[in-house]
Please model this.
Amino acid sequence: MTRCAPAPGRVPRRALLLTCWRALLRSLRGPIVELLRDLRALLWPTACVHCGAPDRDCCAHCLARIRAPAPLLRAELGVPVFARAPYDGALRALLLACKHGGRASAASELGRALRAPLRAALATAGEPRPLIVAAPSSAVQLRQRGFRPVELFVAHAQRGAARRGEPCGEPLRALRAAWGRRGQIGLAPRARAANARLLRVRPGARHRLRGREVVLVDDVLTTGATLRAARDAVESAGARVVAAAVLCLVETRAEPALGSRAAEGWKPPSRVE
Ligand SMILES: [Zn+2]
Model:
């Protein structure tokens, strides 16, 4: 028995039902997520990481401020560095809560914030899918947190980009923190530069880096010491860094980091329209 083809211009009933079902799920998703968050807040009381409003890790008002459209920031460190926003306000509070407050659930929102600067950085590459290399966590940080923040942000950003059909890169865990490397918080510029240089290429990544274009990713650009050290490391393996993406940029920094490539190409940050 042969099945009749639908008349031209008519939408098959099955496709119509599927479309309606998807639209229904989409419209219900928001209320269901909010309901689950209410239930979670009942069981585990929480407060907004920025303003202290009850029941949400980041309240609707602060989320709206993080998501508000704004021009990207751009700095130059020999290659362009794109940042979502200044290191300030709700975004800074959410990042600190994720990295140091045990709120790993904030990673998806931070990944969402990283999407625009990552897209801008990927657009500078000649390759269709350049490598994305994240700044690594030290072994101590990994043990304390149980996750690698920057890699997690990249994964969320890439998922969001893929859903929207935007260009994606190829994440590669190419760097590791050498013994003795610690977090950069609280270090003076000279100590930051010395600490940042304790980055090494992972043995298994060396052959994959050779001849490839790389976009570096970190969470905050302060003096640029980490990104410079990361660039030196991956370029020593034969790759070429074309750009970098960060979530936040410390706008008040007045001078480049001390170090071998300190002054190379450094310019004050500007806004990208
Ligand atoms: Zn808030």
In short: Residues 254-264 have pLDDT under 50 and may be disordered. The pocket of zinc ion is lined by residues 48, 50-51, 53, 59, 61-62 (CB under 6 Å).
